[in-house]
Amino acid sequence: MNDDLHRQAGMRTINTIPLLLASTLMLTACGNSNGQAAQKNPTMDSSSQYDHSNNPYYSHTDTARLNVPLSEWKKLLPEDLYYIAFEKGTERAFTGKYWDFEGIGTYACAACGNVLFQADSKFASSCGWPSFFQPERKDAIVYHEDHAFGMVRTETTCGRCGAHLGHVFDDGPEPTGLRYCINSVSLEFIGKK
Ligand SMILES: [Zn+2]
Question: 3-state secondary structure string, 124-188?
């Protein structure tokens, strides 16, 4: 938790440094992208939470539905992600990487890379999980009636791989009035290049 706070505090500091210095840093970062280390692990940046280099299904552009056996996901995904995504777990409120994260870019499914939300549809919610009012596209997400824990809720899963994401509620802000309440663990942030 403290590490996350420090990291975010560091990012805010970077946002305030003069443009020239920021450009220099970006050029330096771009220079690294041609190096071997970056090629070996092309999906990681400071906002990433997972290394997807060993996941052959991970893609931000392929929207074809996947039908991967759970046993294979279990081999490919980190334990916390597998638990949330394919055993319908829920992370504790206020513990995820993105609940109060304000980066500019997009959010993808952490299991398969399917782009789910734009950062400009994210809003500050007091619930302790990342909250969005609108998905990236209509079929990015699939909806299921969920009767667990004596409640009737609408579960959301990834439209490409079926990973559990969270739930959607009708108490969100305009223009949709919806609140997609999503586990941070199920998300991967892709910063705007
Ligand atoms: Zn997915």
Answer: CCCCCCCEECCCCCHHHEEEEEECHHHCCEEEEEECCCCCEEEEEECCCCCCCCCEEEECHHHEE
Mean pLDDT, rounded, of the chain? 84
pLDDT digits (tens, 9 = 90+) for 7-46: 444 444 444 444 444 444 444 333 333 333 444 455 567 7
CA of 138 to the centre of ligand 1 (A): 14
Overall average pLDDT of the 124-143 stretch: 95
Q: How far is the CA of 69 from the centre of ligand 1 (A)?
A: 13
Distance 60 CA to ligand 1 centre (A): 10
Say yes or no: 4 and 91 in one domain. Answer: no
Q: List active site positions.
A: 181
Q: Looking at the structure, do residues 165 and 187 belong to the same domain, yes or no?
A: yes
Q: CATH number, domain at 57?
A: 2.170.150.20
Three-state SS for 11?
helix
Range of the domain at 91: 49-191
90 plus 134 within the same structural domain: yes
Question: Is residue 66 located within the same domain as residue 16?
Answer: no
